[in-house]
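Lecture notes, part 5. Sequence design as translation. It can be helpful to think of inverse folding as translation between two languages: the language of shapes and the language of residues. The source text, in structure tokens, appears below.
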């Protein structure tokens, strides 16, 4: 026997706040979710962004429909931000060369000087995915237009 908030039942956990019982996603479920998304957005698969988004959508639709009953709006928001950053990281790796990166950033509306600075940066993929020029060039809308499903909550 243990406390209800320490137990996992079908991926959920139950907490008591202000005399009300609320449903949350269990931390082990979240870690499994993130591991699965990491597998689907692996940078070493050699797949196009559209293929990856298609596979990711299949997983996300089912996952979100199952866990939408929870009261974890902050968790859903942080998941969205994290997935967008993973996809930016993937695009940055697919562009490969500094010249290609700078050229593509210019095509997406970044000034030549800033595109050259960003494209020639020696930071790794995950770090570059948070740089403001990359985030400006690849906003969430860029991925939504390619078919990414992230429901509003």
């Amino acid at each position: 026997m243990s406390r209800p908030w320490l137990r996992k039942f079908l991926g959920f956990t139950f907490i008591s706040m202000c005399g009300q019982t609320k449903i949350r996603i269990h931390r082990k479920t979240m870690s499994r979710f993130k591991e699965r998304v990491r597998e689907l957005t692996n940078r070493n698969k050699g797949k196009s962004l559209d293929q990856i988004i298609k596979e990711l959508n299949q997983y996300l639709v089912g996952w979100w429909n199952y866990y939408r009953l929870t009261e974890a709006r902050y968790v859903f928001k942080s998941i969205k931000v994290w997935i967008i950053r993973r996809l930016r990281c993937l695009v940055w790796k697919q562009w490969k060369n500094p010249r290609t990166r700078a050229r593509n950033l210019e095509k997406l509306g970044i000034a030549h000087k800033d595109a050259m600075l960003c494209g020639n940066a020696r930071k790794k993929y995950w770090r570059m995915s948070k740089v403001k020029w990359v985030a400006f060039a690849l906003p969430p809308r860029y991925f939504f237009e390619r078919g990414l499903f992230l429901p509003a909550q």
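The translated text above is only one of many valid answers, since several sequences can fold into similar shapes. The chain has eight helices and two strands.
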